[in-house]
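Input sequence (239 aa), recorded before submission:
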Amino acid sequence: MSEILKVEELNVHYGAIHAVKGISITVNEGKIVTLIGANGAGKSSTLGAIIGLVRSKKGKIIYDGKEIIHMRADAIVKSGIALAPEGRRIFPNLTVEENLRMGAYFRKDEKGIKRDLDWVLDLFPRLGERLKQMGGTLSGGEQQMLAISRALMSDPKILMMDEPSLGLAPLLVKEVFDVIKKIKQEGKTVLLVEQNAAAALAIADYGYVLETGKIVLEGKGKKLLESDDVRQAYLGVTV
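Predicted structure, token format:
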């Protein structure tokens, strides 16, 4: 089992606010790792630091054996990490197809781009029916599918997803989590930030529980799902 991403003693500040307080996580290749926790726990800030959108004050981020903490975000994406951000952030005035091709912006392998385009349209057939439609006219669920697919079009080694189920109807939530499992089956590594703790832990190989910028629990996904502390705090179960 090879380690593809290691975060050590990461600290992130926003002015006087200390959002991430010395966390360390390990992501193994081909696995689904999830970060769960309440709003403001530091989950999104951790992803932002890994992808280079948020500058960390202290710590290390080792990806594929290289330190990337001072790299620019575009260089990090080129190196093989992609983010499907919270709130989708698709390009509303571009078509579905143009959005997808924007995901492959750094790539030059036309055959590979075509292969991955076919793959994401197989994952989300509804996007195939809407290729010429403007992104802004899609439903919320379809926009989430597009955000995930756009990230996959960069052919990443690690796909990071920030709250992919947020605001979706239960049936669509199930569809998104089924797709995350399929993405893993294709050999991709997934780092998942999710408020739906039950759904995330059910598919995760490993999980970390964050509270106010610190890791308070970690373990195999299914073990955390059975933990009384997690069930009480995040699943609404009275223990």
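Checked by second reader. The longest strand covers residues 3-14.
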